[in-house]
Every structure is written in C-alpha cells, then in structure tokens.
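Please fill in the sequence for the structure shown.

STRUCTURE ENCODING:
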C-alpha cells in the first residue's frame, strides 16, 4: 500500500525511552507498520520535541522510568498544555496501583515490559482508538 492510500502513513508517534534497544525495537516495528516515528531518550528531549511540533503527535509512547522524570509526571505536565495528546505508558514495573494511576492521569493504554510485537501493536491500536 502506498503512502497516499495508507492512513497510518499520516499517524505521527513519539517514542520516549532511555533504553536504546527498546527505543530502536519499537521504532522499527512502528515504521514497518507505516507510522511516522520520532524518538527521544529523556523527558527534556521529549518536551522539546512536543513543543516544537506544538503537540501535534497522534500518540506518545512513554517509558515510566526516565533518567530525568517519571513518565507519568511528564505526561501530566504535557497534558496541561496539550490535553488532547494521547499517551501509552510502557514499564517493567506494572502493578494495579501504577496502572490505575496512569489511567487516572489520562493515559490511553499501558504496556508491560517485556512485550512482543503483537502486544505492542494491540496497545498502540487501543491508544489510538482503532
């Protein structure tokens, strides 16, 4: 399917993770699915990218533990300025309390590490409302 007829070729996703292996894997899978992908390794880099694009991402895939912020804290700050921006949180430490905190803060989807490609795609589609 060419980009003119593929609706995913217009969907823009920002991936935020300090683990370069995880970041690269998610980026590769999403690009293979024809999503437009940008990446950041810290909350500061992600905030700059979001501000530069004026919040015009369809989805932010965000690691819960970043070197300079908890993912949920960054999500709350971003949602104050860009309330319509959708978030999918990724974490290796998923408890029911953490999942509920993420949902209460406005996260559309939660994905526990480790995950496989099918789980990633299901979580992305849920977060995008597909």
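FILLED IN BY: designer on duty
SEQUENCE:
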């Amino acid at each position: 399917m060419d980009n003119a007829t593929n609706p995913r070729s217009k969907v823009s996703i920002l991936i935020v993770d300090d683990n370069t292996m995880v970041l690269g894997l998610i980026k590769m899978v999403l690009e293979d699915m024809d999503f437009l992908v940008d990446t950041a390794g810290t909350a500061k880099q992600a905030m700059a990218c979001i501000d530069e694009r004026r919040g015009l991402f369809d989805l932010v895939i965000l690691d819960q533990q970043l070197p300079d912020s908890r993912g949920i804290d960054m999500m709350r700050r971003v949602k104050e300025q860009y309330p319509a921006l959708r978030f999918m949180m990724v974490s290796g430490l998923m408890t029911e309390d953490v999942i509920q905190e993420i949902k209460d803060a406005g996260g559309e989807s939660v994905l526990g590490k480790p995950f496989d490609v099918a789980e990633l795609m299901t979580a992305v589609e849920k977060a995008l409302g597909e």
